[in-house]
Amino acid sequence: MAGGPSFRLDDLAARVGGEVAGDGAARIEGVAPLEEAGPGDISFFANRKYRAAFEATRAGAVIVEPGEAGGAGNRLVASNAYLAFAKVSTLFHPPRAAVPDVAPQAFVHPDARVAASAEIMPFAHVGAGAEVGARTILFPGVVLGEGARVGEDCLLYPNVVVREGCRVGDRVILQPGCVVGSDGFGFAFDVQGEEGSGPRHYKVPQAGAVVIEDDVELGANTCVDRGTLGDTVVGRGAKVDNLVQIAHNVAVGPLSLLMAQAGIAGSTRLGMGVILAGQAGVVGHLQIGDGAKVAAQTGVMHDVEAGAVEGGSPSMPHAEWMKVQAVLRRLPELVKRVRQLEKAVERLGGKP
Amino acid sequence: MAGGPSFRLDDLAARVGGEVAGDGAARIEGVAPLEEAGPGDISFFANRKYRAAFEATRAGAVIVEPGEAGGAGNRLVASNAYLAFAKVSTLFHPPRAAVPDVAPQAFVHPDARVAASAEIMPFAHVGAGAEVGARTILFPGVVLGEGARVGEDCLLYPNVVVREGCRVGDRVILQPGCVVGSDGFGFAFDVQGEEGSGPRHYKVPQAGAVVIEDDVELGANTCVDRGTLGDTVVGRGAKVDNLVQIAHNVAVGPLSLLMAQAGIAGSTRLGMGVILAGQAGVVGHLQIGDGAKVAAQTGVMHDVEAGAVEGGSPSMPHAEWMKVQAVLRRLPELVKRVRQLEKAVERLGGKP
Amino acid sequence: MAGGPSFRLDDLAARVGGEVAGDGAARIEGVAPLEEAGPGDISFFANRKYRAAFEATRAGAVIVEPGEAGGAGNRLVASNAYLAFAKVSTLFHPPRAAVPDVAPQAFVHPDARVAASAEIMPFAHVGAGAEVGARTILFPGVVLGEGARVGEDCLLYPNVVVREGCRVGDRVILQPGCVVGSDGFGFAFDVQGEEGSGPRHYKVPQAGAVVIEDDVELGANTCVDRGTLGDTVVGRGAKVDNLVQIAHNVAVGPLSLLMAQAGIAGSTRLGMGVILAGQAGVVGHLQIGDGAKVAAQTGVMHDVEAGAVEGGSPSMPHAEWMKVQAVLRRLPELVKRVRQLEKAVERLGGKP
């Protein structure tokens, strides 16, 4: 990356709120993993699993927590090393800026409003009445339905769909193939049907929309269904991984984190800062309190209090789940012990 | 929504097969959730969780089951209140009708056949020999492969893919990003390989297709693989939620309901009206009988009889699973009790 | 399929390394399932579940393992019958060959390099500096980002996305809607935030890329995230089913098989020939040894040794898991037996 950005180590430290241990004049020209970093690179160490790589690294500097400030090499010491790393890496890898343009191969409906500073790439489609805010980028194949609104400084990666009437805030990132505003899964069973139809599932119109608030990120091929009447909402600053399902009328609280392949059924409300780990599921019409955590593959079937941690399927408090798991593997042995007890009691003249 | 549809309450009741309790002349101009409804709106109450909202609602009328016909406000009483709500809501939110047109930015192969009443939006692609029926809408980014056929009155939302040779019936709705006709996952392990290749997984051609019968709906980013030789079939009136996997040569029976993130492995056959709840999985080559139900996150590894309800992973009859779950949390305590029994038996002179 | 390929049975056998039992001169004009095959078709029998269909088939010949060579009809006998079937079927269903062309409705950036023998279909997008190798086909709606490289003889089905800087090898197949190079899910919690922002999840730049090696296949709507700094790698000859999540910095070893809806969290490394069954999950920063197998819906939370088989969530050795499952259903009964034992011991004068 010749000609890329370059910083003095002490300059980097000042910009991210850290301190230098070692040579503040060291020149940093890139960011690299511990194993691959060279003398011009800064690297990052926090997970103890990688201590050997940390000790062997050829990096020009390493971002560490205060406890790791000692040792031979240069250190950028920060109380939240991961945050410092994120900020340093952003200096070297700034987000792509919009190049104001509407590609001649794009389709922008005459009744749509696209900010002059926005970038609309080929085969992007902006429907009637849709709006695109300042400096927002629509990559190829993005489809905004009628009246869909996208705010400022957003990145909508290729083949993202925002269906009619949905609203996306500012600084939102939608990874490729993500779908906002698909119909919720609502059907009323009609055992008689119409003339000739026989029994059928009668579609309940999904007449609400989706609101994606500011600073949200949605992962690749993640789906957020529109509400049946009201709106489905993903709150400010929430981050959602790939292949996540958010059903109709769900509310995801601000700053929540939903990991890959998690799913939330209809009308469930997550508080602020809720964490769903990968492949976790939550059934419908529940309340999940602020800061609750749900372990991977957990199945939540009841309301969860603020701050609680759940595990298991169906779920229970995680600490209890851990205890159950610890003894679960001893279950076959337990069955044998009970059988022996029964024999022993019988030998003693008892009737088990 | 000035200028939108407006009905007398007794007119609505007559149209959906219900009866009025209260003022049949009340004017209804919209549908809204209990909390948000005003005097011009009709709302809906069935889930007891929302009784407080029902009692506090300002709605001009509420659709209810017969048991809730009493009380002060206007009621539209129907034996299947949810179905009545669906029909009322459809009167206020009719499905989008096709505007006959082929957008100049669309691609329609000269050998394709598109009904004159169909609507083909920009960047939709209709391959050679493909067919699009009357009043069907292809939204932007839809891709129909060679010889793919789509019937009448269908909605194919943005970025839906129907690969070559697949057939979609009438009144089918495909949500955004849904894929019909991807290759099934079939490989034969070839330990020798060819010259220079080493061991390899040899691809088994997926030469069949997919048949989506009439009145089916498939969710956003759901995938239905084409058959290896014969066809994968989703039967009449089945409804499939988002992010569902339907593998090659599966048959989904008519009127089945597959919830979000469920998966069905190859060659498994579901009967009529089968329900798979969210994140449930069914392994391959099984028979799942008519009306069987599978709970959320369940893993089905054996045939299931008609009408049975399964839970757990691997699955068992749901009632049994519930009993196991009920005692599972007592397992750590049970281990302690067995240890105490062993000590007690020993004190009694027995040998546990 | 008049005019399609046609072979003598002994010719087919010679081409796939098998032997004929019966009439080698039999004319074979197609491949069909046992139930549907006619006298001109060859079929395949290996799964004992389908023995009745095998015995009743009208197929002109059946591909079988050596143990099934007897009986009345013509047989193509091969030691690996499934592989022989795959090869025979490929003779009848050769992969689609590229028709050298760049559609006028495609977008190819002036700085991109597209091989003259490649086929670029309408609404495919090849970004600046991107490369497309010989005989590769980009179906409609495929998006290659800036500097993305795709090798020779690849099939990129409709609406596939390969984001900027990612590299795809030779003979790779990407099913529709598959995403390569979405941002990994990395955020540092910033409790203070900037002026006015309040607490936030600060995005960690995902500055690495994805490398898809030769002969890989990725399923429909599957997602492979780009690395945070280094690359995410899917190794040579690995096959990945639909709706699979591969997180940032994961390494999938050569010849691995990942079934539908499986998920791998960040930085985990799979060895060669690892198998993850459907809906299985593996947490981050683990090592999964060569040839390890993970059962469906399993949740792996620790390193797994080469050749090991894991089941359960959280996982344990599969054999142990099977034993636990076998007794799990007896747990309610076990609780009763312990209660009876306690009473019996009490009657004997002991204190349980």
Please provide a written account of the structure:
The structure is a homotrimer of 352-residue chains. The first copy, chain A, is flat, with a radius of gyration of 27 Å. The first copy, chain A, contains 5 helices and 40 strands. Chain A has a 10-stranded parallel sheet with strand order 9-12-15-18-21-26-29-32-35-38, with no helix packed on it. By secondary structure, the first copy, chain A, is an alpha/beta fold. The longest helix of chain A is centred in the C-terminal third of the chain and has 17 residues, at 331-347. Chains in contact: A-B, A-C, B-C.
Strand order of the largest sheet of chain A: 9-12-15-18-21-26-29-32-35-38
Helix content of chain A: 10-25%
Note the overall shape of chain A: flat
The span between the termini of chain A is 78 Å
At the first level of CATH, the class of the largest domain in chain A is Mainly Beta
Query: Rg of chain A to the nearest angstrom?
Result: 27 Å
Which sheet architecture does the biggest sheet of chain A show? 10 strands, parallel
Number of domains of chain A: 2
CATH architecture of the largest domain in chain A: 3 Solenoid
Summarize this, please?
The structure is a homotrimer of 352-residue chains. With 352 residues, chain A is α/β, with parallel strands linked by helices.
